[in-house]
């Protein structure tokens, strides 16, 4: 988000401007804009209520993306006010699931952890054949092509050495920020539910209603994937917002509850990575 800030701002603005306006022109009966938890202020009171929108400064590394999404939320609100369009805005928490982006440099935290922990497991177990298979699959990425050897490629993912015979995986940041995660299929289900049950200019949060630290997420993934080595944190890369837990009471009062729990979702995503990542 920080590196490609202009792309995030420009492309999201262009997408939503064209789609929202065309929906109005073609008299679409119902519209649903997907926002993000990133639209809320960096230090909004937790759990974050929908009313926190525009109440404080944004997280700087997500600012371009957040501003674009806020513009889309306000567009839906203004088209509703001026033209009577039944457009709603849905704010999901951090998502993961089937078909995620496992790019070595540009992926989000959830798919990045799945990839890195799997590689660390293979390294720890001496499964060179699987490491070579994944590396061959990633040859399409420029960053993977620049690695001169298998060891250098692993080092790019923080897997570079053993301590007392144990693999060490170094992940970004401190591991202390708290995040809320939801399986993407659940958000799709919630959107369909809200298209039928919700009509308001006020955005509505979609999430699991619980969070955990990034370190706890990594430990759970390691347990489920089967990595028994050590996990360390580099303490260098930015942590971002300290916590992002959303208040989902408005959604729950309407009658929607998630079905796919985190452990089940991790295994679904891991199986997808093994087959297609």
What does this structure look like?
The chain is an alpha/beta fold and 277 residues long. The chain is built from 10 helices and 11 strands. It has a 3-stranded parallel β-sheet with strand order 1-2-8, with helices on both faces. A 3-stranded mixed β-sheet has the order 4-5-10. β4 and β5 form a beta hairpin. α1 packs parallel to α2, α3 (109-125) crosses α8 (214-225) and α8 (214-225) packs across α10 (262-276). It is elongated and about 65 Å long. The two termini are 21 Å apart. The mean pLDDT is 93.
* Global shape: elongated
Strands, total number: 11
Which strand order does the major sheet show? 1-2-8
Radius of gyration in whole Å, from Cα? Answer: 20 Å
> Distance N terminus to C terminus?
21 Å
Helix content: 40-55%
Percent strand: 5-15%
What is the N-to-C succession of helices and strands? Answer: HEHEEHHHHEEEEHEEHEEHH
Give a short account of the largest sheet: 3 strands, parallel
């Amino acid at each position: 988000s920080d590196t490609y800030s202009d792309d995030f701002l420009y492309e999201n603005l262009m997408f939503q401007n064209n789609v929202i306006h065309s929906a109005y022109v073609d008299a679409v009966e119902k519209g649903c804009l997907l926002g993000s938890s990133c639209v809320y202020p960096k230090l909004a009171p937790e759990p974050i209520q929908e009313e926190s929108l525009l109440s404080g400064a944004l997280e700087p590394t997500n600012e371009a993306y957040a501003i674009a999404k806020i513009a889309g939320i306000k567009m839906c609100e203004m088209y509703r006010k001026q033209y009577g369009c039944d457009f709603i805005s849905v704010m999901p928490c951090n998502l993961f699931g089937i078909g995620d982006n496992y790019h070595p440099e540009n992926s989000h935290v959830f798919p990045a952890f799945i990839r890195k922990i799997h590689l660390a497991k293979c390294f720890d177990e001496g499964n060179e054949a699987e490491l070579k298979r994944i590396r061959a699959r990633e040859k399409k990425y420029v960053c993977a092509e620049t690695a001169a050897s298998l060891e250098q490629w692993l080092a790019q993912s923080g897997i570079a050495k053993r301590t007392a015979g144990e693999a060490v995986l170094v992940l970004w940041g401190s591991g202390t920020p708290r995040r809320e995660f939801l399986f993407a299929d659940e958000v799709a289900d919630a959107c369909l539910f809200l298209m039928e049950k919700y009509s308001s200019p006020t955005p509505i949060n979609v999430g699991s209603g619980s969070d955990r630290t990034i370190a706890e997420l990594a430990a759970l993934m390691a347990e489920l994937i089967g990595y028994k080595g050590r996990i360390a944190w580099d303490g260098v890369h930015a942590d971002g917002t300290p916590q992002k837990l959303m208040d989902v009471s408005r959604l729950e009062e309407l009658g929607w509850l998630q079905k796919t729990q985190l452990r089940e979702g991790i295994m679904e995503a891991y199986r997808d990575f093994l087959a297609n990542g």
